[in-house]
Amino acid sequence: MVSIILDTYEYASKLRAGGFTEQQAEAQTRALAEIVEKQWATQLEVAEHEQNLRRDLKEAELRLQGQIREAELRLEARIAEVRADVIKWVLGLSVAQTGLIVGLMAKFTHVI
Fold first, then answer.
1. pLDDT tens, position by position, 71-83
2. Distance of CA 40 to CAs 32, 50, 56, 74, 99, Å?
3. Which of 39, 49, 57, 111 has the fewest Cβ atoms within 10 angstroms?
4. For position 111, what pLDDT does the model report?
């Protein structure tokens, strides 16, 4: 973490050297120190919020990945069920068709 150090004594000395009175230099120095402190606190709060958001996003991503995997497994199971049903129907229709063909052949072979 980066910290900001404001040398208020040096700052006030420069203000006095620039023509400010002692009272003006001290008031200006206090005002600047308060502003810097508030800005730094705000930056720390933003960094903390950003860290919390990143954590929350990671948790949401992990939950979503789990839900997607669960949906994939359900879909795979359903596809397997449908595949089995299709195979049953195709085999059933094939047997029925074969029986029909054999029956027709038997019918027509007796006619001749």
1. 999 999 999 999 9
2. 12, 15, 24, 51, 87
3. 111
4. 57
Is the dihedral angle over the CA atoms 41, 42, 47, 49 positive or is it negative?
A: positive
- For the question of whether the overall pTM of this predicted structure is more than 0.70, the answer is no
**Gap between the Cα atoms of 83 and 41, Å rounded:** 62
Q: What is the dihedral of CA 6, 7, 10, 13, to 10 degrees?
A: 70
Number of helices (H), then strands (E), in the chain: 2, 0
Structure tokens at 81: 């069920």
Length of the chain measured in residues: 112
Q: Where are the beta strands (DSSP E) in the chain?
A: none
CB atoms within 10 A of CB 68: 10
How does DSSP classify residue 84? H
